[in-house]
Amino acid sequence: xxxxxxxxxxxxxxxxxxxxxxxxxxxxxxxxxxxxxxxxxxxxxxxxxxxxxxxxxxxxxxxxxxxxxxxxxxxxxxxxxxxxxxxxxxxxxxxxxxxxxxxxxxxxxxxxxxxxxxxxxxxxxxxxxxxxxxxxxxxxxxxxxxxxxxxxxxxxxxxxxxxx
Length: 164
Hints:
- This protein has 164 residues and is mainly α.
- It has a domain at 5-63 and 100-146.
- 51% of the residues lie in helices and 12% in strands.
- The N and C termini lie far apart (50 Å).
- Residues 140-144 have low confidence and may be disordered.
C-alpha cells in the first residue's frame, strides 16, 4: 500500500522535507520509500489519522485564528482558559501571545514527531534535527535532483580515453 499524492504532499510539508531545502538524498529517499511501502490497512489508517492530527494542530498553532466566514484574521487564541464552577459558572481566558505561540507550536511539533516516528524518518521541523542537516548533506553522493543522471562519472571518462 502507499499514500496518494495529496497525503504524500502533506507528509512532506509536516516533516519539513522540500525538494529545494537541501535535505540529504538518503533522508528524502527514506521518506519516499516509507510512504510507498505501508504494510497494511491498520498502518495506513494510523498514518492518515496522524496526518489529520498534524493538519488540525498546524491550523491551531497560530496566535491569530482565521475565521473563514468573515475572512477575519483577528480572533486571538487564548493561551490559558480557566473555568470556575460553583454558584455562578464563568470562564476566564487570558492571552500571552508569546506563550500561546510557543505552547501551540510545541504541540504541533509533537504531533509531527509522532508522524515521523510512525514512518521511521527524521522530523526536519525540529531545530535540533535541522542542525545536523549541513553536517550530513556533504556526505551524500547525489542530491536526488530530478532529471537525467549525471553521465560524467570517472569510469565513463576512463573508458572513453581507452577507446581513443
